[in-house]
Amino acid sequence: MKATDVARRHTTPLTNPAYAPVVPRFTDREYLNVVYRTDFDALRAVVPEPLEIDEPLVRFEVMRMGDVSGYGPYTEAGQAIPVRLGDERGEYLHAMHLDNFPATASGREVSAYPKTVGAPRLYVDHGALVGTLDYGTLRVATATMGYKHHPLDPAEAREQIAVPTFMLKIVPGYDGRPRVAELVRTRITDVTVKEAWTGPARLQLFEHVLAPLADLPVREVVSASHVLTDLTLAPVTPVHDYLEAS
């Protein structure tokens, strides 16, 4: 293979790419969102500067992807933290666990999503919408919400899931020091809200050393939503370079 051909490849393994070279379109992406209050000090320990925290809130989410171009169906769960960068409010993606390797690899390599392994589920059980996350054989999180109790304004649902998103992109160099260390920003685009509901909810987080969601403990459930959408993920844009700032 010629050197010029190598430079045109976008992923490894060289002759068997880990993911398709597509901009994924999500059809029937279903969310269970539970916003809860946690400890301010716990948030300060994980949210990187220059992001700022106004309220000690976390959004636990379970997302069932009905169909995704390039990846197929899969499920994902994690935590997003409301933050502010200057005058712009958004969310910092703190943790994402999913059951699809191509989506994990592309999220980490092409973008900066903090994706790792996990076994999330989203289903209905005796009148409750249930979202769970297991790591290996152990339960990490269980969320329950009353199934379609009250309609939610589609504009409010869209605002919940389409806020600016901030993430850390860290790529180590061969000497062990960071080669890339950036804060990046993205946003969900082309959103169509098909259904949106709210209702009572509960959330339990369980201690696990490799999935430390419980390090942001649940003190009070603030709100919950159940949303069905179609959407597209936009490319990321760097907003802060930690190597230049150091």
UniProtKB/TrEMBL annotation:
<protein>
    <submittedName>
        <fullName>Acetoacetate decarboxylase</fullName>
    </submittedName>
</protein>
<dbReference type="Pfam" id="PF06314">
    <property type="entry name" value="ADC"/>
</dbReference>
<dbReference type="InterPro" id="IPR010451">
    <property type="entry name" value="Acetoacetate_decarboxylase"/>
</dbReference>
<dbReference type="InterPro" id="IPR023375">
    <property type="entry name" value="ADC_dom_sf"/>
</dbReference>
